[in-house]
Amino acid sequence: MSMSVATLSQPQLRQRLNLLLVLGASLALSVLLVTFRVFLTHKLTFVFLLWNLLLALIPFGLSTMLGLSAGRLKARVLLPVGAAWLLFFPNAPYILTDLFHLEPRAGVPYWFDLALLLSCAWNGLMLAYASLTDMQQLVTRRLGWWAGWAFAALALLLSSFGIYLGRYLRFNSWDILTNPIALFYDIVSRLLHPTAHSGTWGVTLLYGVFLLLGYATVRLLGRMGEENLADSH
């Protein structure tokens, strides 16, 4: 795979570096909270969150690589990398559902576990939105504004379906290779018999709408900040 790296303008480079610094600091906080909890309790209760965060970094890494690539990417590069991105993308917003694990536990203040889970959920959500922003911009450059937002909405709906598959059916991204028959059967059965699986579509639609509204809010806030900065100059 050969891709030339784009030469970013100084403001773009500064924005990219600032984003990486802030996300890095936020991720470091999550790691610190999980590590401190292990030392405090001598239990590995929430160590799985570190693996979940690592999985959430994969789509962000892929989209960052594509976003930094110069010019119009060729289909033979964009399609397979985009498919891999879409496969791993649900792992980022999936961390929101780890809030299900919040309950009072001996030896740790309830508020500490709440802060720990919120920190990880926030990082998953922000990694998802940052990654989707890069991918949406790629689509927008090729196909236009409407296609970009249609892609973003579809990606978030598919990720919500992926969240259901992961949280309730316990599938993961690797199952497309290691357990494809069971995964295919469960997906097709829900497509062919939607009324028999109301929970599937309830989670998909409700979480999809929630994620889309959150994403639109974040994008709008970013645009307002850019416009206010431009006006001040």
Description:
The protein is mainly α and 233 residues long. It has one domain. Helices cover 77% and strands 0% of the residues. The protein has nine helices and no strands. Helix 1 packs antiparallel against helix 5, helix 5 packs antiparallel against helix 6 (145-167) and helix 6 packs across helix 9. Keywords: Membrane, Transmembrane, Transmembrane helix. This is DUF1361 domain-containing protein. The chain crosses the membrane at residues 20-40, 46-70, 77-96, 108-131, 143-165, 199-218. InterPro entries: DUF1361.
Concise overview:
With 233 residues, the chain is mainly alpha-helical.
Q: What's the structural domain tally?
A: 1
Q: What characteristic shape results from the CA principal axes?
A: globular
Radius of gyration: 19 Å
SSE order: HHHHHHHHH
Main beta sheet strand tally, sense and closure: none
Spatial gap, N to C terminus: 42 Å
Number of distinct beta strands: 0
Residues in β-strands, percent: under 5%
Helix content: over 70%
> What is the number of helical segments per DSSP (H or I, 4+ residues)?
9
Report low-confidence residues grouped into runs of 5 or more: 1-6
Overall pLDDT score: 91
Multimer state: single chain
Overall structural class, as computed from helix and strand content, comes to mainly alpha
InterPro entries: DUF1361
Pfam families: DUF1361 (PF07099)
Protein name: DUF1361 domain-containing protein
Transmembrane segments: 20-40, 46-70, 77-96, 108-131, 143-165, 199-218
List keywords for this structure.
globular; 9 helices; mainly alpha; 233 residues; 77% helix; disordered N terminus; single chain
